[in-house]
Amino acid sequence: MTIPTFVDLQGFIVGKKFVAKEVAVLREGTILSHYIFTCPIPWNYLTKSEKHCASWLGAYHHGLQCEDGMIPYSMTKRLITMAVIGAEWNWLQPSRPFTDSERRKVILLQDNARSLIAKNILETIYNLGWDILPHAEYDPDLCIINKSKLNETEFDTWFSEHGINCLGMEVQSMLEMFARAENLHGAQYKKYIGDGDTKTFAALLKHDDEVEKKECVNHVQKRIGSKLRKAKKTNKNIGGRGAGKLTDKLINELGTYYGLAIRRNSNDLEKMVDDVWTIFYHKISTNEKPMHERCPSGPNSWCKWRRAEAIGTLESYEHPPPLDSTVQKVIKPIYEDLSKEDLLKRCLGGFTQNNNEAFNKTIWQFMPKHSFCSKNIIEIAALTATCIFNEGFKPVLKIMEIMGITIGPNADFFACERNETRIQQAQQLMTYEVIERKMVRCNEMLETLQNFEEMEGILYGPGIAD
Ligand SMILES: [Zn+2]
User: Fold this and answer.
1) N or C, which terminus of the chain has less Cβ within 10 Å?
2) Which residues form the Mutator-like transposase domain (predicted)?
């Protein structure tokens, strides 16, 4: 039996020509060649649209950048042909007819790179008699490949079967992760922290009906912002300038306090519900009718009324103008909706997806996410990051020890000190003032993001996960 040759080719389009960047060839099942080539043209010489196209390919498709690679571009053809057939010939412009064995051996792992679905390339592949290795079943790349190959009705028939799976890629990988935990470790996930997308959880329930759904607190917090902004759009009279109007600044502030109410009471549902209302009643308080029972007491309280109370200057305290009565009428139902026990119960525990992000960041410290790394480096970075993320810097010493490096007392001291600093920094970041300052900055950013998301279609819309 002849073992086929697998080829994977990635690159960029420059001046309508395909510039090979990376090639991986597996010949006869054992001979693996992998090259990343330098760029034949300096980046500055590319036109705007070529740069755009190259950046797109790098960011969304193959993860390679123009500057990547060490092997001179002049060697491309020679190395690729050597890798594919084990001898030299010019494979794109054959000077001699192919022998039968050359024809039949090659299988191309074809994807949706423009370079590989262009008509002339498809023709060349066909003429060479290469076979095409299809992509994994749920690969969305397939849609684009097939769209270029099939006619409209054929594509529709194919997509009606494939499309459902393809679009459910997140669902599919989540199911895989849940099943993998059982196979590998005999352990079962008990909780699933969602971000508002219901499809995944519904599928998980079919797999294991005991999984409990939790909400990512950050995503829940976003809901109040989107609800308030929506209300402002539909009720023209509540926005605008003036005292007690629903301004963007106020929306951000209400969002922050809503988030805090959930986070600070992550083990106490009753208090959480109560705290959600705190800011509402604080904001509608007047000199005649102060309603600060729920506001925290003491001289350090954020509530100025409570502060005045603590230092005994309550008599001279003047309330700022309360929320406009029309504003009150509109936002009260929103607060009622978002203080429902059913929703807040899923926020108990104060789960977020922050840990995942924090872990990702630890990996990126070793391996910047925007530059291309080989599989080995990724593996080393991920494993080292896991050690540091879970246990601090001591395991790094252990790794060095296993590699045969003698660890002296100084190294041990540095590892301890580094851990200490890490904890101190984290504690500093947790102080009240720093959090407040951070929130302000965060909110400004969130606002931009949220406006964008609302334009994109409602991903985190209220009620979407109920
Ligand atoms: Zn108050």
Assistant:
1) N
2) 167-303
Residue 246 alpha carbon to ligand 1 centre in Å: 18
Q: Name the pLDDT band for 26 (thresholds 50, 70, 90).
A: confident
Range of the domain at 304: 220-345
Residue 363 has pLDDT above 60, yes or no: yes
pLDDT, average across residues 41-52: 78
Residue, of 61 and 394, whose pLDDT is higher: 394
Q: How far is CA 251 from CA 131, 181, 231, in A?
A: 58, 42, 11
Rounded to 5°, the CA angle 237-239-240 comes to 105
Query: Is the same domain home to 189 and 255?
Result: no
pTM across the whole model: 0.49
How many angstroms is it from 304 CA to the middle of ligand 1? 7
Q: Show Cβ contacts of residue 335 under 8 Å, excluding neighbours closer than 6 positions.
A: 276, 277, 280
Tell me, in angstroms, the distance from the centre of ligand 1 to residue 305's CA: 6
Q: At what angle do helices 325-338 and 217-234 cross, to 10 degrees?
A: 150
Q: What is the pLDDT of residue 90?
A: 44
Q: How many structural domains comprise the chain?
A: 3
Residues 27 and 69 reside in one and the same domain: yes
24 within some domain: yes
Q: Is 226 in the same domain as 211?
A: no
User: Are 224 and 323 found together in one domain?
Assistant: yes
For the purposes of burial, counting CB atoms within 10 Å of the CB of 32, is it exposed (0-12), middle (13-18) or buried (19 or more)? Answer: exposed
Instruction: Transcribe 365-381 into DSSP letters.
Output: HHS-TTS---HHHHHHH
Is the model's pLDDT at 141 over the cut of 60? no
Distance separating alpha carbons of residues 123 and 311, to the nearest angstrom:
84
Confidence check: pLDDT of 349 > 60: yes
Residue 382: inside a domain: no
pLDDT score recorded for residue 281: 92
**For residue 337, how far is its CA from the centre of ligand 1 (angstroms)?**
22
Of 112, 133, 154, the last residue of a domain is 133
Would residue 154 count as lying in a domain? Answer: no
300 occurs within a structural domain: yes
